[in-house]
Amino acid sequence: MIAETERLIIEKFTTKDAPFFKALVNTPHWLKYIGDRNINTIKDAETYIQNTHLKSYESVGFGFYKIILKDTNIPIGSCGLVKRAELEDVDIGFAFLGEYEKQGFGLEASKAIMKLAKNEFGIEKLLAITVPYNTGSVKLIEKLGFKYEKRVKPFEDDQELLLFAKIL
To answer: pTM for this structure?
Structure first.
């Protein structure tokens, strides 16, 4: 376990989480706001977890984590930190299964991740990026205390994103 909140357990992904991860990355909101990762099978999900999450834990010590409801032990989403070559600082990200959105889980998980970023990983500044039309993410990012800085096009898809920053 990486962290615990009032309602949530936060832990590292493993390849055993492939069925959940496949479901998460194929939700309508993930596809609309984050993009299609072409994860169509459990094997695709296992490979993605190995090549991204597990690799990140090993190379930088942190990554995206599985968010689990404490009272039912059901995985409901992902929240974590990523150091992208395209951005100057580490950024925070989150995604939840549709039925668990708008219940405060993103805020609760993100606060725990931000605390880890500062206290465990020594991160002093965090970024957050999102597409301009993802109003739910924008609201959550602002509620977490991030301030809008500028529009950026960090990735090859040439999609313009909103960039927010927060000093921890």
So the answer is: 0.94
